[in-house]
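Hi all, long-time lurker, first post. I run a small reading group and we've been trying to get comfortable going from sequence to structure in the token notation. Rather than ask abstract questions, I figured I'd post a concrete chain and ask someone more experienced to write out its structure so we can walk through it together at our next meeting. Sequence below, copied exactly:
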Amino acid sequence: MNLVVEIGNTNTKLAFFEKKELVELLIQVDSTIILNRLNSINVETAIIAGSGNTRIDWWKEFPAVKKICFDADMLPEIHYAYLTPKSLGADRLINAWYANQLFPAHTNLIIDTGSCITFTLIDHHKTLLGGSISPGLTLRAKSLHDYTDKLPLINICKTETSELVGNSTKSSIQSGIILGTLFEIDKRIEQYQALHNNLNIIMTGGGTQFFENKLNYKIFADNHFTLKGLNEILLSNE
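-- Answer (accepted) --
Happy to help. Here is the structure in token form:
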């Protein structure tokens, strides 16, 4: 059994793989629950990465034959046009590398709809060109609540639909956040396609459900893209 751990800004994801098959996913922030689960199964190799703090006690405590902390040096074939490569989030780097592994003949645009919405562009020469970072859905909702006097905090994750014309404060916020983000993503894709004829578009992250079927583009969508990419890195380092 292989274990892939992604430490995010909000949650910790633990993905258990049998070689390349994802067999179990645990999303948890409680270290006691995490450690109890890890002690109940036989983990042979494990890898940890993420935008959050990866220096955590339970990672040190649980037994495994081999444990690896992801580092950009593990991907020496990646080139950078990005001016500050050391500041790249691990998730963006993993996504770019894995996209190139799956679609090596294309320029790949990876859209990650997590705590932040990131666009990451890597060409077929394995050169990471850059992209953009903007607030994610939950962060936008929280900002509206935190920086105004009367706007309520909306749980975007439980929103099923959003209308162009909101007929209440709640539905107006949902429209502004979800459709505003959709229009942002749609326009950015249009601009990227104008620059790259062979563009392949990949979408991942918790907000994928809101956008994958509403964009007028062919999208390769996989909520677990980063975890699968990290598992491929683990397999290549066995």
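A couple of things your group might point at:
Helices lie at 31-39, 57-61, 90-102, 137-146, 169-195, 208-211, 225-236.
The radius of gyration is 19 Å.
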